[in-house]
Design brief:
Layout lengths: L2 E5 L5 H10 L3 E5 L7 H5 L3 E2 L3 H6 L3 E4 L4 H9 L13 E4 L5 H13 L3 E4 L2 E2 L2 H5 L3 E6 L2 H14 E8 L4 H29 L4 H8 L7 H12 L8 H18 L4 H15 L10 H9 L10
Parallel strand pairs: 1-2, 1-4, 2-3, 4-5, 5-6, 8-9
Antiparallel strand pairs: 7-8
Helix pairs in contact: 4-5, 8-10, 8-11, 8-12, 8-13, 9-10, 11-12, 12-13
Bound molecules: NADP nicotinamide-adenine-dinucleotide phosphate (NAP).
Length: 300
Amino acid sequence: MQRIGFIGIGLMGSHMARHLLEAGHTLTVWNRTKDKAAALVSAGAQWAESPKLVAESADVVLTMVTDSKASEEVICGPAGVLEGARDGLILIDMGSIAPEMSRSIAGRAGERGVHMLDAPVTGNPKVAEAGKLGIMIGGPQEVFDACLPIFEVLAAKIVHVGEKNGMGTTLKLINNLILGVAIEAVSEAMVLSAKAGIDPQKVIDITSVGGARTGAMETRGPRMIKRDFSPGFSTDNMYKDLSSAIDLAAEFGVSLPATTISWDILRSAKARGLGKMDSCCVMTVLEELAQTRVSGAEKS
Ligand SMILES: NC(=O)c1ccc[n+]([C@@H]2O[C@H](COP(=O)([O-])OP(=O)(O)OC[C@H]3O[C@@H](n4cnc5c(N)ncnc54)[C@H](OP(=O)(O)O)[C@@H]3O)[C@@H](O)[C@H]2O)c1
């Protein structure tokens, strides 16, 4: 068993940290909002007053925070992980951040003798709770091999993308552009079916078989009908990921027309104050454009 540090006890991190604790690791945690770590501390985790102190008490530190800026702050900022790091510490950054930031953090970590993996995940809070995430990892083979038992506690699918840092976060953007476009497509289908007088449940039923089958419909369709936009994967986070995917595409001279439209609808949802809601709330933007309503009552 290892001494593991976990930073970022959010919707995803709370479940991931719990699995590591239940697997028997010694766990030290920090979260910007302390209250969110209370359940883990009651279950046996140690609380540390800063990411620096987490690093001082761990052999492997996992970070699971929102975006590039947040990862940089908790790792490289004042009282961050690198300030408490010693030679040989392993840092696994599991947030969905821009690949160039993964590389930049890995470079700064390397100067302190810290080995880093970028290891973003696929799934959602329920999948994290079930310990069945997908994890895609960029970084040196020997560091990946050393961390494999940790990944196995959290995931059903583990993909070592390549030895260069930023490879994991690059694949994550590619994965999420599919999800973002699929949720937009599902929203369009729901709104058109409402306008055409078709019960949206029948859209879910028929697309559960055949070529239009998509995880976006399976996971978001029922929520759209119930108008349950409580956050699973937020509009803000999806917007962040599609923004990074579009930046990446610009770097490689690739056009992403469908991604760009989905990103623009997300921006419109954000402008309506829906940034913290689940990204499937883009359906409401399309409802407004079509002057229709899919069904159900607002979840209070
Ligand atoms: N939710 C999903 O379905 C899903 C699926 C795959 C990947 N992801 C990715 O996983 C990561 C975490 O997502 P989540 O859904 O768990 O989000 P979340 O519930 O909003 O949690 C975000 C975490 O980051 C922390 N944080 C944000 N800004 C910070 C800062 N400047 N300094 C320190 N801590 C900061 C938050 O602290 P506070 O508690 O203080 O706010 C919280 O612990 C994101 O990169 C997301 O894209 C999410």
